[in-house]
Task: structure prediction
Amino acid sequence: MQIPEYFTYLSAQHLESLNLSAEAIVRSIEQLLGAAKQSHAWNAPKIVIMPDQRYLMATISAADDPPFLAVKALVLNPRNHEQGLADINALVTLLDSDTGVPLAIIDGNWITAVRTAGLSAAAAKRLARSDSSVIAFIGCGVQARSHLKLLAQLFPLKELRAFGRGVSNRDALCQLAETLGLRAIASGNAQAAIHDADLIVSTVTFSSQLVPFLDAHWLKPGAFATVTDLAAPWVKQSFSELDYIVIDDCKQEAKMEIPLVNPRWVVGDLMDLVCETIKGRTRSEQKTAFIFRGLALGDLAVSALAYQVSQLQQIGFQIKR
Result:
């Protein structure tokens, strides 16, 4: 193999300009989960350091096809907003998984937002009612916007309810919903947002001081919740109310000191769901949920897809080695 003369830097602006569809993102995630089932793709449990309020994390995943290895480093610091910075900042490096030759440096904030929404969408395809039309967001920041963009492509959404501590984020989410043709409602409290919603997305920024304020008893029969925030804002015992809970990675979860949810309530993980080792929704009235920490294969799936499309479209800064 001849070493490429250049490697690529993809900024958030470059990545946004690729216009990756929800279908393409979900398909890329599904293909890698299928490859992992056949031992042709791999990811290690995430590594986390929490020295204080900061959440420092790294993930690694690799595949034979597409032949890439992705490493992501991420820092979540709730004090960042005092400096006008995003709470979460991350970077992904992409290497050839056979030779180790570096191929790309990719904005990790965009990858994190889109891969999280992609994982939710892959689960929602199987666990949510296909006629879901009302979506509720608890937390209205970057993750909420990425989820809305993807889920609006997969479900016949008509109404959005938004509840969050930041008025500007809430209003921005409502404005985005209106541009997508949805009726947008700024809810006065979390229970009002969740009441009678078909899809519930919780994306509350993690904090060690967070007091749980969400209750799964509020979900109506037939509702689906995707819980992206380590389930920190949820009253954990209330998850016993749900009929069907799937997590992202049972092997990863087994290595964690504190479980996301009582293991007795978990049916399986996303690989089981996508590969049909377990069933998805079987009854219209089931209350279902996808509760997850984040899956490194999702980072790889979206990073690989973005890199491949960027090469076809000749998008990105080329950096000489």
Summary: The chain is about 30% helix and 25% strand. The radius of gyration is 19 Å. The chain has a mean pLDDT of 95. The longest helix spans residues 108-127.
